[in-house]
Design brief:
- The chain has about 150 residues and is mostly helical.
- A two-stranded parallel sheet has the order 1-2.
- α4 runs antiparallel to α7 and α6 packs antiparallel against α7.
- It is elongated and about 60 Å long.
């Protein structure tokens, strides 16, 4: 049975491993689970509803998990926080969509880029530290959300 690493942790917290403990193959993500299922390398796997709908005709059968076992609001909040934290460090899309107009389309990552480009390494270091602290805070919040699912 293949499942994403996050689901392995959820199964441990909910004491759902049982006899399957030695038969679980933890993979990086849902896409990899689908690949293992469709190639016949595993007998079963845990995937999300979106992937199920995309490949419904290719699966022999499926069972829906009871929603009482997970907290959809926490999942959405976690996804939002991860997207936000990724956006903090994004440079490329900011340059493509907004250009690099200092004071108008500035983001922390562009400010770091501009500071390094202009030789203001001390300012770049401070902004980098701010970005690191923000990231740690966001991941701490995600950790709190994960703990509240128990």
């Amino acid at each position: 049975m293949a499942q994403a690493k996050g689901l392995v942790n959820l199964c441990k917290k909910q004491n759902l491993e049982g006899e399957l403990k030695d038969k679980i193959l933890a993979v990086a993500g849902v896409t990899q689970v689908v690949t293992y299922i469709l190639s016949g390398k595993v007998d079963a796997g845990f995937i999300n509803q979106t992937e199920l709908n995309a490949h419904k005709d290719e699966f022999g059968s499926f069972v829906l998990i009871d929603k009482a076992l997970y907290a959809p609001a926490n999942i959405v909040a976690t996804a939002f926080i991860l997207a936000l934290s990724r956006g903090f460090g994004e440079v490329g899309i900011t340059l493509i969509l907004g250009g690099n107009i200092i004071g108008k389309t500035d983001t922390i990552s562009l400010a770091i880029y501009n500071a390094v480009y202009d030789g203001r390494n001390d300012q770049a270091l401070i902004l980098s530290l701010v970005l690191v602290v923000l990231s740690f805070i966001l991941f701490w919040v995600i950790n709190l959300l994960e703990k509240s699912r128990i």
